[in-house]
Amino acid sequence: MILSRCRSCGAPIWFARTITGRAIPIDREPAADGNVTMERQRSGDILATVHAGQSAAMLPAGTKRWRSHFASCPNADCHRKPRQLELLAPNAARDRSGDR
Description:
This protein is an alpha+beta fold. Helices cover 17% and strands 25% of the residues. The protein has three helices and five strands.
């Protein structure tokens, strides 16, 4: 994990890696309502697991949880990659092209 600060809001964050190898910004302080857990691997690396939907509620009591900084940053949309926004509205570009 890499200690850092959010470029837009200045909050202290970690950059952790998911099982797919993607970096994910995590709020540095644990959160009771968080849906991210972290586990040290045999290699010494820290693996962040995002528990979607109800699976976060099913974690054993006492499990330390964190929150993705995308969920708490007031400027999160500034950091989203265009591909992610395109997935949210895949027909938007096509709909605009028909207005000509």
